[in-house]
Design a protein that fits this description.
By secondary structure, the protein is an alpha/beta fold. The chain has one domain: Rossmann fold (3-Layer(aba) Sandwich). About 40% of the residues lie in helices and about 15% in strands. It contains 12 helices and 8 strands. An 8-stranded mixed β-sheet has the order 3-4-2-5-1-6-7-8, sandwiched between helices. Bound molecules: adenosine-5'-diphosphate and magnesium ion. The site of magnesium ion (MG) has 5 residues, from helix 1.
């Protein structure tokens, strides 16, 4: 690649804490940015394969990301499509892939190398597992940026402090992607604790949290069981409105402000 070739943004949805909204963010950012006209590849790097199921796909048996990491499948043949969105599915086989990747001589950049051969993408979005193991390391080696979803509670804030320190430590060694933003998920403005967490996080990491927060919204919890992103499942829901705003803000932070009037939700 020559110096003039722009690097495709590759965003890892990352938090070692489970249940904070990594998958919800990865699915709906990928779907929303696709609706804004971006060519997106969503990568499911979690052996639980929740992104895959949330988009209505079956977990790939030995294909998908596990096959790609094993060198058994080419990435182009492993990719599935949901409308205009390209998806590299996950599966339980990723657990075995993860243990192979933990060997000291295992290559740390297999995912990055695989993604480099996919042509014509505007961005890649990776859904990470809830720990900083070898699969997350593959994601971090491929990523140009991370988005950190968190819930508005004390323990989530503690995890965030540790995660941001860990990322800063990696960046001292020139290995860390930039933090594109922190997403406050399951936010309820009426709850004092939620407002306090929002203000504390903004105070500790000025400018890093997104302006858009994702409210607690039942449609976001229901959509995965229908295999649909929020824009297809409930386009008028608070979840769709919040993710539309987050997609616009993400696009802007990645340096490509969508044209006025372009919205992931069709009105
Ligand atoms: P993670 O990938 O970090 O483990 P998920 O995205 O799977 O977290 O979210 C955990 C659970 O919470 C899922 O059942 C999801 O549908 C639900 N959920 C996530 N965000 C919201 C929200 N804003 N409102 C309601 N339910 C949510
Ligand atoms: Mg998940």
């Amino acid at each position: 690649m020559d110096a003039a070739t722009p690097i495709t943004p590759c965003i890892a949805c990352l938090n070692h804490k489970g249940g904070v909204g990594k998958t919800t963010c990865a699915v709906n950012l990928a779907a929303g940015l696709t609706r804004l006209g971006w060519r997106i590849l969503a990568v499911d790097a979690d052996p639980q394969a929740h992104l895959t199921a949330s988009l209505g796909l079956s977990a790939a048996d030995d294909g998908g990301l596990a096959g790609v990491l094993a060198g058994a499948t080419g990435i182009l043949e492993a990719v599935a499509h949901v409308g205009a969105l390209a998806v590299l599915p996950g599966s339980a086989a990723l657990a075995a892939a993860e243990s192979r990747l933990s060997a000291p001589d295992a290559p740390g950049n297999r995912l990055r190398q695989a993604l480099a051969v996919v042509p014509g993408l505007d961005a890649v979005i990776i859904d990470c597992p809830p720990h900083l193991g070898p699969l997350t390391r593959q994601a971090l080696a491929a990523a140009t940026g991370v988005i950190v979803p968190m819930t508005p509670d004390f323990l989530s804030m503690q995890s965030l402090a540790w995660l941001m320190e860990t990322l800063a430590g990696l960046s001292d060694h020139g290995q860390a992607p930039a933090v594109v933003g922190i997403v406050l998920n399951r936010f309820t403005a009426q709850k004092r604790l939620h407002r306090e967490v929002r203000d504390t996080v903004a105070g500790h990491f000025p400018g890093v949290p997104f302006q858009s927060v994702i409210r607690e919204n039942i449609a976001l919890a229901e959509a995965p069981s229908f295999g649909r992103d929020i824009f297809r499942y409930a386009p008028r829901s608070a979840g769709a409105v919040d993710f539309a705003a987050l997609c616009r803000e993400t696009a802007t932070r990645l340096g490509k402000t969508p044209p006025t009037g372009a919205e992931p939700i069709s009105r």
